[in-house]
Every structure is written in structure tokens, then in C-alpha cells.
Amino acid sequence: MPPAQDLRVRWRLSATEFLFTPLLMVLGFVGLAAVSVFADIALSRSHGAVHDLFLRLFPHANLLRMLSVIASGLVTVTTLTLSALLVAISHTSTSVAPVVFDQFLRRRANQAYFGYFAGCATFTYLVMAVSRPEWIGVGAMLAVVLAAGALVLLVFMGYGVIDQMRPTSVVRSIQDLAIRARLRQMPLVARSRRRRTLDGEPTSVTTRETGYVIDISTARLQDLLRGTGEEIEVEFRVRIGDLLAYGDIVAHIRGGDAGRRAHVAGNILSCVMIDRSRNAGVDPDHAVEQLGHVAWAANSTRQNPDVAVAAIGALRDLSARWAAAGVPDAELYGGPLPVVYEDVAQRRIVTALVDLVVVSTSSRQHQTCAAALSTLADILPQLEGRDRDVAVRSLQRALPATLSHVASVEMGHGLAKLRATLDEIGREDLADEVREMGPRLARESGLGEEGDMLDSLDDSTPTGPLSFRFR
């Protein structure tokens, strides 16, 4: 990438992620400083009793000293506070997940805090630089008010940032991002088809850029494919969130004559937005993966399993919401398009849960494994077609990992619930495998032949994660 283009990309990313709001607020404070200077100039021309009173109450030398103290104090307090907050953020990102940094930068409130403190200091320095002995000090008094507001805001900022670092707040924030991102992605999912309808040799479209697919514009697709009807079909080989390298295949173009295919192939990349980093606000799969990473980090040795259970609960909630909402009618978004795009949102959730079942073997956190199994049991009946087949195959390969855990009540409930679900969806073969794991888990935990753990589940027994105890 040429240096000039690389600089533009970096600037756009920085402005989008963090810098735009603080810079806008700093410019606002610069404008306020200009207004206060003009007000001082206008008021200094009227030498009345009020003007003389202000000059006696607020001598110019005192105002300059006060502005100097305010400016240096703002810089010092802000620097110390931000240093402490960055330490807290770094600690949380280490114990929870690196996504904490992304969330901190993208929150509008945090951007506004930074913008206010930077703007307030800039305002004070500007007023101090242009102050004149004959002015009554409108800018200086405004600086005092703004500095007092900064000190009050500092308390709110400290509490707000610390509250954001709570693992449950991190999980809830990612969950909200996933819900909004799914709504933003819905036009593409609703207007596309899951399987191609045209055969024949395709025209392949490859990318010339490197980065993540952050969006596929249905509006541009509609303009590009207008008038082609069903003669041309675009089959995307990538999904939002995929990482592309130079020369990767983005889409296959089928149907029509060679000229039309060439026209569509030459312009299809304009419909695919590629960026250097993923954004959970527009990429629901990325939000799901972030929840999986949070649970993964909390699932390691010497970590609190409650954080992992909270992330698993968020994944279960997302799956239930998206399954209940379904896919709206394409007419709500302008009608169907001859575009093939495979929606794998539910598969991402299943993959994250199956990964947790596997990784829990290293930390021996049976609570997390049981919660993941129970959540998979809730999700499987909601899936249809290929999504369910992929989920069952993934689960079948991960089930042997459960044998490394202790024979706790939680594991018994999780396996029993999973077995009942597999029977319900017609997978009796896999249900029998789960049924055999109860006695095996008890024997390998040294509990002998005390009965089948899975028989303890009845309609009155809670199936969620319980406190740690053996049978």
C-alpha cells in the first residue's frame, strides 16, 4: 500500500474509532475562547462603574496566576487520573479479554470525557495567552467554571470507566453490540438466498486488498444488478468478518453472457467494504467471537468461572433472540436479490460453546463445561437444516472432553439435559452416547457404581449451573 494511502487509512480508522468526538469538542472550546475574547474586548470599551468594579475585584496579575494554576492543575490531575485508569484497563484486558480496549475507545462517553478535559485545558491556555490588563476577565471566569466542571466530571469519569471494566458490564456491552449489528446485517440476510440456483462455469472475482470484510452493501448490489433479473447470480465466497489476503476469491458470478458477467465481476468489489480491523458494532459474528474469548479467558486456571457463565448466558440469549426473530421478508428491504450469502450466525454461537467444552478440560472448571452443555441443549431445537447438522457433528467430536471432569451434580444435569434434547430432535444415536457417559464419568471420578448420574434429572430439578458439590 502506498505511504499516502496508508496514512489516509490510518487517519480514517483513528477518527472513526476514537479521535472524531474529542477533536470536535476541542474545536468547540476554541470557538468558546474566541467568543470570550470578543466579549472582553467589547466590554472593555465601556468604562463604567461595573467595569471599574471588576478590575478592582479581579486584578489582571491575579487572573493570570489563577489561569496558570488552573491550566497546570488540569494537565496534572488529568494525566494522573488517566494513568490510573489505563492501569485498570490493562489489568481487566489481561484477566477478561483484549476486547476491553476496543470497547473503551469506541464508547462515546469516554470520547466525550477526553474531549472535555483537552478542550478545557486548551481554552485556559488560549485565554491566558491573549489576556489584557484592561479586560474584565470574562474568559478567566469561564475558565474557573469549566475547571470546576472538569473536577466534578472527573468523579463521574472514574466511576464510569471502572464500571465499564466489570466483567459483567463487558459481557453486556458486547451482547448489545451483537444485537444492533445483527439488525444492521439483516437486509443482506433477508434479500439473499442460501443456495445457488444457476450452474455453469463461474467468473471468479479476487480481491486486491488485505483486511477484514466489514460490510456488504445491498444498496450497491441493487444498483449493480438492476436489469439483470435472474440471468446473473452472485455467489459470495466470503462473509462479513472474514479476513482476506491478496488474491482471495470474493465471489463467483454465474449466468448471463460473458459481457454481463465481466461487467458485474468488474464492479462487485465496490459493494464489499474491507477494513484493517473488525467492528463488533457492524459485525455480529465478531461480537459472538468476543463473548467466546471472554469465556475462554475466564475458563483458564485460577479464574472466576462466573464470568464464563455470564458470557455463556449472553450467547444463549443471542441465539434465542435470533431464532425467534427469524429472517424477515425480503420485500421489507426492497425485494430479493440474485445473491447467494450463507448466514452462519447460529453456527458461530455453537462453535464458541463447543470450544468452551474442550478448553474447560485444561482448567477442570466443570461449572463452565456444564453450563456450555446445558446451553447447547437449549440451542439445538432452535436450529434448522444445515445449522443443526453442523452443530450436532461439532458436539459429537467434543463430547469425549467431558470425561476429564469430576462427576459433579452440575455435570450430571448438563449431560442429562443434553441427552433429552438429542432424543427430542431425533438423534437417538448420539443421545445413547451421552447416556453412557454418566456411569463412565462416575467411575473415572472414583465414585464407583453408585448409579447413573443422569437419572437424577426430573421436572423439578433446576438445569442451570449450580454451586459446586459432589453427589
Automatic annotation (TrEMBL):
The keyword Transmembrane applies. Residues 447-458 have a biased composition (Acidic residues). Residues 443-471 are annotated as: Disordered. InterPro entries: DUF2254_membrane. The chain crosses the membrane at residues 20-43, 63-89, 109-128, 135-162. Keywords: Membrane, Transmembrane, Transmembrane helix. This is Putative membrane protein. It comes from Streptosporangium sandarakinum.
